[in-house]
Amino acid sequence: MGSRTQLQPRAGADNESVETEEYVINRITVGIIPKVWTDLQKLITRTRFNRTDVVNRAISIYAMVDENIRNGNEMVFRDPKTGKERIVEIV
């Protein structure tokens, strides 16, 4: 499975819109435990993203969560129907 390429507009030197491709700057090999493998497969099926896209998004989300928690914020899941909130802790 290859990684998805996204084209994003960017202002060129003459202020024209030009397309730039996101590209792979590094590759890693990781050991995946059975539960995480199952979760990954479910995400691939539900989102229709490939493995690379799911892992890239997961790392980006984790980086955002980690930064917010380090800045003293809490991660809260709120049920829009009931308004019930749960504070999520990552240990």
Strand and helix layout:
Elements: E1 7-11, E2 17-21, H1 34-47, H2 51-70, E3 75-78, E4 85-88
Antiparallel strand pairs: 1-2, 3-4
Describe the structure.
This protein has one domain (7-88). The chain is built from 2 helices and 4 strands, in the order ββααββ. The chain has helices at 34-47, 51-70, and strands spanning 7-11, 17-21, 75-78, 85-88. Strands 1-2 form a two-stranded antiparallel sheet. Strands 3-4 form a two-stranded antiparallel sheet. Residues 1-18 have low confidence and may be disordered.
How does the overall form come out from the CA principal axes? Answer: extended
Strand content: 15-25%
Average of pLDDT: 84
Backbone CA Rg? 18 Å
The CA-CA distance between the termini, in Å, is 31 Å
Q: What string, H for helix and E for strand, traces the elements in order? A: EEHHEE
Task: Bin the helical content.
Answer: 25-40%
Query: Main sheet?
Result: 2 strands, antiparallel
Class from secondary-structure proportions: alpha+beta
Describe the structure concisely.
The chain has 2 helices and 4 strands.
